[in-house]
Design goal:
alpha+beta; 7-stranded mixed β-sheet; 5-stranded antiparallel β-sheet; 31% strand; binds biotin
């Protein structure tokens, strides 16, 4: 199955972009995010893009495991925060938009977003983003943008606990998608949103795109914020990326949490 990405194909794609990362492609690693953080610790200079064919300890949000068998696309991109370090969480929204843009370009027209950064096709998760801020000093910050996409993944090999809620691009298109092409589209859209964010000095355009592609806004949801579970209707994505939910107890704003979309009966 076509899953190894040729470094030369990546470099060719990058030549058209403003992103200028060192490129590392490996066949197996614990986690591309962890490897990126190790390289940052040992003095990484400039941007980095690291990809692996499989991950043995892929990480998701809330310390969950990100199952990473062959066929998926697993990458971490290290960049300086686009604006200030405080805006680091918004980089996850930027990547999520870029993944949906890229999926649409590859022919998946039903991809939508679940707050904050999950990419769904028909309510099933096809991609996830883990964005981590690493600060080496008070003015030396980097963001590690970890992206996992179930591309040519045979979902029957995923753990049973997630199989029912996961999907892959191949399941929707019925044919293999070139990992090189998909990667190049993702990087191209990331680059596009970075340029817009930089030139406007705000993430407003990214947030507007996120709202446009959201499956969460307007939906009945259950949200677990780590201390309790709330049920309500998702009303708004605020400018700092938090979610405003109308609950029985009134409007509540969440800056973090695990969302489930509830079916309307
Ligand atoms: C989530 O939805 O919980 C986030 C999943 C993020 C997975 C990607 S795969 C590449 C990078 N390396 C990791 O260990 N995690 C991210």
């Amino acid at each position: 199955m076509a899953s190894v990405v040729e470094p030369e194909a990546i470099r060719k794609c990058l030549r058209r972009l403003t992103l200028n990362p060192q490129v590392a492609v490996v066949s197996s690693i614990d986690s591309t995010n962890d490897e990126a953080k190790r390289r940052i610790k040992s003095g990484l200079n400039g941007e980095l893009l690291i990809l692996s064919e499989i991950q043995t300890r892929g990480k998701g949000r809330y310390n969950r495991t990100w199952s990473s068998p062959k066929g998926g696309l697993y990458l971490s991109l290290v960049i300086r925060p686009i604006l200030k370090a405080e805006s680091a969480p918004l980089h996850g929204f930027l990547c999520a938009c870029a993944v949906v843009n890229a999926l649409q370009k590859m022919g998946v027209d039903r991809a939508r977003l679940k707050w904050p950064n999950d990419v769904l096709i028909s309510q099933h998760k096809v991609a996830g983003i883990l964005s981590e801020l690493v600060s080496r000093s008070h003015d030396d910050h980097l963001v590690v943008l970890g992206i996992g996409i179930n591309l040519n993944t045979d979902t029957s090999v995923l753990p049973e606990a997630i199989r029912h809620s996961a999907t892959s691009v191949i399941e929707h298109l019925g044919n293999i998608t070139s990992p090189e092409e998909m990667l190049c589209e993702v990087l191209t859209f990331i680059d596009h949103w970075i340029q817009i964010t930089r030139s406007e000095g705000s993430f407003e355009a990214v947030l507007a795109e996120w709202r446009r592609m959201s499956a969460t806004l307007g939906a009945r949801i259950r949200i677990d914020d780590g201390t309790r579970v709330h049920v309500g209707t998702a009303k708004e994505l605020l400018d700092d990326g938090s979610l405003l939910v109308e609950t029985e107890d009134g409007n509540v704003t969440f800056s973090m949490g695990d969302v489930t979309h509830l079916r309307e009966d």
